[in-house]
Amino acid sequence: MASVFEWSGKTSRGTVESGEITADSREDVIAQLKKRNISATLVKQKEAKPLFGGLGLGGGGIKDKDIVIFTRQFATMIDAGLPLVQALEILATQVESKALGRAIQVIKSDVESGSTYADALRKHPKVFTDLYANMVAAGESGGILDTILNRLAAYIEKSMKLKKKVKGAMVYPIVVSSIAILVIAIIMIFVVPTFAKMFTSMGGTLPLPTLLVMKTSHFLAGIGGILCGIGIAAFIVGLKQIRKSEKGKIATDRILLKLPVFGILLRKVAVAKFTRTLSTLISSGVPILEGLEITAKTAGNKVIEYAVMDIRTAVSEGKTLAEPLLKSKVFPPMVTHMIAVGESTGALDTMLSKIADFYDDEVDNAVSNLTAMMEPMLMVFLGGSVGFIVIAMYLPIFKLITLIH
User: Fold this and answer.
1) 294 and 202, same structural domain?
2) CA-CA distance, 296 to 302, in Å (whole number)?
3) Roughly how many angstroms between the first and final C-alpha of the chain, as a whole number?
4) d(Cα 57, Cα 23) in Å, to the nearest integer?
5) Are 37 and 61 found together in one domain?
6) Are 282 and 347 members of one domain?
7) At what angle do helices 145-186 and 348-404 cross, to 10 degrees?
């Protein structure tokens, strides 16, 4: 049965293109693209939209924490010897998220109808990711489903911690900057005009800083404030529109990775995520090529995604993992050397896990350094701006006092 596939790839000229193709399989898509001289870097089946929006099976209201608790409880039940269907029946009624409960009920019905647990999970891609379903499939085939489920829960927990660290690093400067801008805007729009009226009625020549603040205040209180608001809204909408296209995502993601401070943090996060995901997949018995494809999809950055897919192509041609990693120039040399050692000793999953642990600590340090660096800068910006406005407003008063004396 033909399905719609989303694809992206490189042309013979080196440009990146993307689109959709209706085909019978992923291999058929790759073959069609080859005829058009396009080397496929990513091919995935387009998710079908749910027929009934009210079922709540689209992941709405389902948090990572809900999935972790469900996975750990399910692993305990399987380890205790409970049948799969019975364990799902119990968990469907006791999970906190109603949406997850409904999804589990549907999965239970599919398993009762003869589907494997992994195949039943794949019908809910917005609730259970490809990584989750593939690891469960490996656990079912190897007879170690409880072990795999515990490993999955540990992986999701570590991913949650990593996400929390990055959000913390981003939220602090945004909140402080927003408050600083809001305070300055209130002073400029509501406070300064009161002083301006008083100075105008007094007459005489005002100091340059006072004139500068008054003109800025007049501009912001009038058309300037509207223009600034429109400009900010246009920037946000424009950025969203750019991010909708494949080329736009690549361009913006490349800029993010090259940012002076945030870029370093994002690279460290990418390395931690890549090594943790691949380590978990390989140690669970998922083939390396399939593992690299899933890792690319979960990268969260198009530049990293394409780099990993290029690495996958090189590995499929018989090369080691370390060789294309080094050529990609996305991952640090230390990472590639450690992976090379892991490959040569046959302990790749263990080495990847060690790298992930190391970079988790590196992310911690990077977040701490970022916060420590941003805090004084933001305080200087806020204090300097407010201080300049206050001094500029009091200069004419000081001048008047001097003339009286």
Assistant:
1) yes
2) 9
3) 95
4) 27
5) no
6) yes
7) 10
**Average pLDDT score over residue span 134-143:** 84
The neighbour count for residue 319, using CB atoms within 10 Å, is: 14
Question: If we measure between CA atoms, which residue out of 267, 263, 294, 258 comes closest to residue 278?
Answer: 294
- Number of structural domains in the chain: 3
Residue 267 confidence (pLDDT) above 70? yes
pTM here? Answer: 0.65
Confidence of residue 203 (pLDDT cuts 50, 70, 90): low
Which of these, 271, 257, 242, 254, lies nearest to 355 by C-alpha position? 271
Q: What is the pLDDT of residue 1?
A: 43
pLDDT digits (tens, 9 = 90+) for 296-349: 887 778 888 888 888 888 888 888 888 888 887 778 888 888 888 888 888 888
Q: 380 is in which domain, residue-wise?
A: 158-405
